[in-house]
Amino acid sequence: MLKVGVLGAGHLGKIHLRLLNQSEKFELVGFFDPFEENAVKVAAEFGYTKFDSIESLIEAVDVVDIVTPTIQHFECAKMVIEAGKHIFIEKPIATTVEEAEEIVALANKYKVKGQVGHVERFNPAFTAVKDKINNPMFIETHRLAEFNPRGTDVPVVLDLMIHDIDAILSVVKSKVKTVNASSVAVISDSPDITNARLEFENGCVANITASRISMKNMRKSRFFQKDAYISVDYLDKICEVVRMQDAPEVPGDFDMILQNAEGVKKQIYFDNPNVNPNNAILDELETFADAINNNTTPIVTLEDGTEALRVAYQIIDCIGK
């Protein structure tokens, strides 16, 4: 098993610690948290080994799971990579695109593997339909959350929208051509609700909305492509594929048939793929272990995390104009 240590024992860090402790692919060695009072409490409550420095933790493991505040990602990643250890790093990969690019360059230089924690890639509703998403030409996403002071130190684009940016980039095999966006800071100093429109070189358009001041939670995406509409509900973990095919000459009594203005008849049929329940965070961590052990490419690479961050900042820059 791979020896792993966790940097950061806050809300998400404790979740990672619990799951790594349960994993059959990792041996949890311990954690480091710079806030001594919290570190002592976590060690006492859960029995995890507390390290007194980042350096001592890095030395004791094969893999470091970085779950610190984003502002610390770069320095932590740099230390880990230069020590020759693999990194799992929570989203967003870094504070700036320049930092992210340097993380990628360092990982290549020191020949270590890295994965970014864009957890929605492992949501069972998304994984159930990803292979069915083929050249989408219009995408609409809504990620709405009730207000929570945790995370309001960054724009909602980096807090919430970046999840959908990454998912969209993973299925649209084209470069972003233009970005338009609008935003409002309602209760925070940074934007709380943002709408962005991405246009890709292949003609695909993505309309993305993220809010952290909504009355209810919603995490939905819709993908439209030739002869198909695919919906993903990340929150309720359900998905649906609505397809169209040429109508039979003699439709059945219960066939759903549409006829367009040109007289072409299409049959509509519904496909509800099986959604296998999972723990998405555990899956992203364990697939990273597989990538290390099998010397394969991680599912969400450092380059993927960098591109998601790059597009996020294009949106933020657009808002600032």
UniProtKB/TrEMBL annotation:
Organism expressing this protein natively: Flavobacterium urocaniciphilum
Superkingdom of origin organism: Bacteria
Domain GFO/IDH/MocA-like oxidoreductase span(s) in chain numbering: 156-216
Domain Gfo/Idh/MocA-like oxidoreductase N-terminal: 2-118
Family annotation (SUPFAM superfamilies): Glyceraldehyde-3-phosphate dehydrogenase-like, C-terminal domain (SSF55347), NAD(P)-binding Rossmann-fold domains (SSF51735)
Protein name: Predicted dehydrogenase
Gene3D superfamilies with a match to the protein in the record: Dihydrodipicolinate Reductase, domain 2, NAD(P)-binding Rossmann-like Domain
InterPro entries the record matches: Gfo/Idh/MocA-like_OxRdtase_N, Gfo/Idh/MocA_Oxidoreductases, GFO_IDH_MocA-like_dom, NAD(P)-bd_dom_sf
PANTHER family on file: BILIVERDIN REDUCTASE A
GO MF annotations in UniProt: nucleotide binding
